[in-house]
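Homework-ish question, so no full write-ups if that breaks the rules, but can someone show me the predicted structure for this set?
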Amino acid sequence: MAADKDVDLIQGTLNVLILKTLSQGPMNGYGIARFVREATAGDIEVEEGALYPALHRMEHREWIEAEWGVSENNRRAKYYRLTPLGRRMLRARTESWERLVDAVGKVLYAEPRRA
Amino acid sequence: MRRDDTHSQTREPAWRRYLRFLRPSPAADLDDELRDHIESSVEDLVARGMTRDAARSEAARRFGDLSRVRHDVQRLDQRHFTRQNRMAMLETVAQDIRYAARGLRRSPAFTLVATISIALGIAANATIFSVVNALLLRPIPGASADGLVRVYRGHHSPFQWDEVSWFHDHARSFDYIIGERIQSVSFRPATNADGERVRASFVTQGFFPALGVTMAQGRAFDGDDRDAAAPPVVVISYAFWQRRFAGDSAVVGRRIAVADHPLTIVGVASPLFRSSVLGWTPELFIPHSIMPVLTGRPLAEFGGSFYTTGRLRRGVDMGAGEAELQGLTRQLVMSDTSRYGGMTTRLDHIRGVNAEDRAAFAVGAAFLMTMVAFVLLIGCVNVANMLLGRAATRRTEFGVRLAIGANRIRLVRQLLTESLMIAAIGGVAGFLTARAITRALPSLLPPEAGLDDTFLRPDFRVVVFTSALCVLTTIVFGLAPALRAASTDVVTMLKGSDSRARRRGRRGALVVGQAALCVVLLAVASLFLRSLASSKTVNPGFRADGVIDVNIDLALLGDRANPPATFARILREAAAMPAVSSATLAAVVPLTGSNMESRAIPDGAVPVGDRRAGSMVYFNIIAPKFFATLQTPILRGREFAATDDSTSTPVAVVNETAARRLWPNGDALGKRFKWGDDRLYQVVGVARDANYVMPGEAPKATAYLPFAQAEHRADMTLQLRTTADVATTRRAVWALLRDAAPQLPPPPVVRMEDDMAITLIPVRLGAVFLGTFGALALVLAAAGIYGVASYSVSRRTREIGIRAALGATRTRIIAMVLWENGRRVATGTAIGLAVAILIGIGLSSILYGVRPVDPIALGGVVVVIATVAAAAAFGPARRAANADPVRSIRAE
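A: Not a homework solution, just the prediction itself:
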């Protein structure tokens, strides 16, 4: 886990996006990426090189769980779903994201102070 | 390339996909997951109007480096699964341990008996291994072992001082080469204080740094200490510092008197260090360059008496070191052929005793280790037996567990965990017992053995040995019962009946084995005990009772002694003491462990073929009245008289065996023989054979030479035949010596019988050890016999009930059970006796007064084992006879 720290912001952000996406219902990796792209009108493009490691890591931590299903075209497809732990993580991460945005905003829009 | 990646997935043989139904395959799952991603992407693009080919390449482009993603994720998964597996494994082990602990707690009686059985065996093994470790395996205690090697002249001899310093000065493969020689010296804490005889090691330059010995106080010797002009210095041992100076830190710089020369103490050696030679416990360390000053004799006179140790330079191996020393030896030989002719050098590792003693110790060690292995084996058989019984009663439990899907390997592992716990508890208890025993053991030996309570202390080697032994015992006693328990058919198990008679037969075999091992131990132990007893009654050819020994070493006085005159005066005055009927001097007191041997050549004998003339003969240097004092009859001629002195013809007395061997065809009396030097000695008397080295030994050819004609000897034992007790004699002798040899520390005054006790040490130790092992074996075997008899009775409840119902009397039933048991014990006893006789034949060189087939020893063993076996089986037999036949028959 300590190894994740250095990419904390990006990783953490991606994690929270994935968790949020999965809170809509079970989805495969492609579905998650498409959902994020469409929800942000293409502003955030989730890279596969980051997506799959993140999914697997969260699966190991049991924030999400996977189930094998069959896609419309009869392929084996892996569908991820939030676990109760993942739901709690989503709430906690959302809150801390809001605090971060709030704090950064305070700095960015602070009135210059006079001595 | 990317295309290839996706392509390769489709090329996966179809059958491999089915493997996923058998076990999860993370790699294949990942491939499927990624393929699903790309295909989904392609479908999306096609839906938006792209051609399939364009969509395919676009999807691949968007995905990026597929193989890299796959690699990254695979690594993540791999790490995760490894961690998960490890956790799962720890969890199962913890479960097994909990399960085993619960099982053991639930049957405390079984647990107690089983762990004690193992603990006793492990204690015996760890104790003996500690002894083996100290005597054969351990490097020099208190020294740093790195690169230390022993250097021998010839096969296992010490060197002369000049050879050691030649090596030290010229060998480039070594950081140091040092020698050590031990001898007694007189010591006074101050010039006028009372003296004491102490052991001193004379050591060559670089002794302490070579061995890496640290100093508890002060410093080691330095280069200046060798300088003859420098004030002479001494390092004292830690034990001596504690004993004589009460650990006073002001001792460094203090002047003491050694052989009445002042020496300054410069240091106290580390408490762990004794000597470079195992078994030596010098109290003083003195630079060898001071020897001539202290002893009044030039260094050359000390001969080859320096045991030599080298520290190899870092990175040099023993082969290279040895090759260099052999080269240096050749140079030495060429420099003076008459002095060094035939000299060879070899290196040896430095563990335990010196090479010359190693073979004998190794044989003894192997023997004792075998005996204790037997004790442990008997214990293991007991536990195996109990485990089999336990498995029988738990059969239903196992059956249920197997039926509800527990796997057999898991079951075996749990049972083995239980066994390992028994072994571990027994091992810890056994190790602690061994540690206590090894601490107490040295106090059972005479102080001359020089062992302190740390000598046998178990170190990491003993811990490793004991742990390995625990694992081994687990396998020996636990594996078969565990496999058996898990392999039985579920249906039979659940039904709770087991009709196979084979089982009883196999358990019977265990009793046979136990009885055999037990009989071997008891028989060998009783041979030792018989030997010890008969050593008291065997006639050595002289009478030791009523003789008191005083070892007088005038060399302690160094250059001031005048041995011939002093001894003459001591002998004269001692003979005149009240209660003393006769007095003599002897260089060697027979049966005390020391001996002298040389070649005697009858006058006129010439070498025949390859054989040298004459024969090897033990000898002794004695004063007149030796034979009278020891009451050894002179068969012909006379013993020495005061007139046989340095001015008269050299004379000798020989014993019967020497007379026969040197002059097979005639009377020895009046014949002459050559002896070392060129003088001819004339035989003036023939004495009856007497033991020399070992009580009860085959007669050894022995020659006696008169002290007055022998070259200058300073170390003699005054032997007095007296009616006075030791204390009175001690006072009288010490008073006498205060005048006759004023500077001499008061010598030890002991009964000759006590002096001789040292030759009995191996037999006495053997008797103590084997007696203990035999007793342990007997107790363990009794427990085993009882267990099997009980089991067998419980399995035959129904049969016995039927017999009783058909009119068998109680006596008959008891006899039947005893007979069944007795048959097995008898078979075991027969096997055990056969083995014991073979061992007895092997031991005949150290056992005297007993033959390997000693009817009393072996008969006694048979009586003991029969009695114990009958007693052990009697309880179960009576229980069988007392059982109510009706209930017994209904029981099954």
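Now go work out the reasoning yourself. Hint: The CA atoms of residues 636 and 686 of chain B lie 5 Å apart.
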